[in-house]
Fold these 2 entries.
Entry 1:
Amino acid sequence: MDIIVIGGGASGLMSAYICATYGHNVTILEKNEKVGKKLYITGKGRCNVTNYCNSQEFFNNVVTNPKFLYSSLNNFTPSDTISFLNQFGVKTKVERGNRVFPESDKSSDVIRALNNACVNNGVKILLNQNVIDCYKNQDKFSVITNDKKYLCDALVICTGGSSYKSTGSDGFGYKLAKKFGHTIIDIKPALCPIKLKNNWVKSIEGLALKNVQLSAYSNGQLVRKEFGEMLFTSNEISGPIVLTMSSYINRKNNIELYLDFKPALSEEKLENRLLREFDANKNSQINTVMYNLLPKNIVEIFLNACNIEKTQKINSITVQQRKMIIQNLKNFELDFDSLYNIDYAIITSGGVNIKEINPKTMESKLVKNLFFAGEILDVDALTGGFNIQIAFSTANSVGKGVL
Ligand SMILES: Cc1cc2nc3c(=O)[nH]c(=O)nc-3n(C[C@H](O)[C@H](O)[C@H](O)COP(=O)(O)OP(=O)(O)OC[C@H]3O[C@@H](n4cnc5c(N)ncnc54)[C@H](O)[C@@H]3O)c2cc1C
């Protein structure tokens, strides 16, 4: 069978390789001058290629449509990714949180393995081929690029999401999918910073907080609580718990965010702590006492939110003011503006509606011999190597589906 794969990224290279091992005649059309441009920048250039955890843990890290991925992830597991890389000469190592990297810490080694797997199995990789249109006429697909027209029996669309457009994934695949009758679930940024309206954010740019808890509510209902590290950037918050939170709130509206500076302490314990501090510093100003509880540069902002003058003496702090301090230490409101621009999101949420895709084969239920794999599908996961694994697993299913 003649197969064309559009896109030479994680899912395109893997699906081309798998299809070729089944004896098909496979061509990759990639618009860039080289394959794997996005892979190259993954994991800060080290490529966190998968997560070596059990399947339950894996699915816990898939934010959107985990059930759709049961079959593909069980058929091509994180161990299979590691074996694949080892087979093509890339040794791997497991780091904190079961994150798997090439031992060399070089994403280029992962790209080379995928490229060699394809070339050794006869896949033709055609570069600088920007696909601008596709259609199906009877049993054949026509694929039109900037300079040629190609024909094939099966078409695999692996054009990625809509973020980091300079790597080639500019959302064109969604247009193609629509052309074939598919619905596209709204595209949203995921794993991205969150913009705040608070005008003080810039003044604490660079401030990192550890062991804090961020809670998000939508229309007054709790969406999620995340415990860990975050930081303030120019007009946004970022860092691990913020990136995770972005993936859970990107389809919700009327978002409210609250920060718990002391998640380990109940309000009662916090009050006792505060009383001890106040007792020991009766004649001090409130700001100096708050320095024992919060990073120095956020204290003034914090006291403003409590409507307390930073110079007020401890011995004049009223019970009401003390309650206000406790309330804000546990539930400090951050004024949500929006998620960060999708161009800078690590992953795109939304995409080809999975209800229209066979989960065992990634074949379109609408058009025979049309397949999708990778980020173009409406699936997304948290950081930790899960997204590349999803690209590989869905790509592997394509190989099983093309008969
Ligand atoms: C900064 C950053 C860091 C990341 N780090 C990690 C990480 O460490 N671990 C992890 O699991 N995930 C990570 N991700 C996510 C991961 O990179 C993606 O989920 C994964 O690359 C998706 O693979 P894909 O094949 O679907 O799409 P892509 O890898 O984006 O590949 C799509 C390919 O299609 C090509 N293409 C698009 N349109 C056309 C067209 N019209 N004609 C021809 N070719 C076309 C593009 O040029 C591109 O090469 C990271 C993402 C970013 C942005």
Entry 2:
Amino acid sequence: MTTGISAVWHDSDQTFELRELPVPEVEPGGVSIRVLRTSVCGSDLHIWRGDGIAKDAPPRDPFVFGHEMMGEVAALGKGVDTDSLRRPLKEGDRVVFSYFFPCMKCYNCIRGEMGACKFRMGRKPLDEYPYCNGGFAQYYYLRPQQNFLFKLPDDVSDEEAAPINCALAQVIDALHVGRVKFGDNVVVQGAGGLGVNAMAVARDMGANKVIAIDGQPARLDLAMRSGATDTININDFPTPEARIEAVMELTDGIGADIAIELVGFPAAVEEGVQMVRQRGTYLEVGHISPHSYASIDVQQIVSKQIRLFGIQHYDPWILPAAIEFLRRNRDRYAVCDVVSDVFPMTQIGEAFAKAEWQGQASNKITRAVIAP
Ligand SMILES: [Zn+2]
Ligand SMILES: [Zn+2]
């Protein structure tokens, strides 16, 4: 039996353990992936910190996480000889794929809302087939009939491709839902991996101003190279009132047409909804941890007629569109420079420690990537 190494996370002592797990025998219709790159996404940092988990909660069972990844086809199940666009596919081809598995036969799926499937398959215990279902591992398994995978062109490198299936796809979906229009002014709260991608996508969709808000100078610098037209450094504008005022000034007192929240702290929502104009749109993406309560004057949402959307996952068409977005914009924006550091799997603990930005005055890592 072939095996592959997975980085198994233990809540009990807050460490990763490198463990050999079986590589699944591929079922008809399934695809086994040899993972080449997996990034440390902001939501991985939430899991690693234990954000949203009660202090007295028992440790979770050891598990493998990581979802922002790309790889090459290790084995094709019977009946699979093309990608999801009917292009010939063989072992060794580099691919991107969605990291969630819609059931394809529920109320939402039959409406084409695969990203909203409530029955999508979750993580399985480590001793249960197919064993490999986390991204910080050498192998990952795409389940039959529930997978969407797309061949990567040669000119997109592994590092460039890793953030496609989460950071890039997620913000494309959000800005598509929010309907960025030609000439819109857009606020992006948070200039991490999702943030800088959102800035470039907003500009590509025709945004006029893109205002980046963050507290890390290196991120704001990358933001300016990734399509932001203006930045608000929270160290220079230390209060929500000052930041809201700064947005108003940059938009001639009108407010942003669209603001997108990619920080994942409730206070960001409290101030962000005040940055949008009358009948503006607020896109909430960042909060993936439970118990994220914000205090908002709902009357303001009503009287300002704010369009508020919660966004998670995406529909499959976004992935090939994201690949083409990268090829179209890589010379224009620094979106391909988001990945700043590559670590071998043996240094995954170090990669997380270095990627941690909370409580750091300055963190030069914009996206850490593991090469399993
Ligand atoms: Zn992610
Ligand atoms: Zn479904």
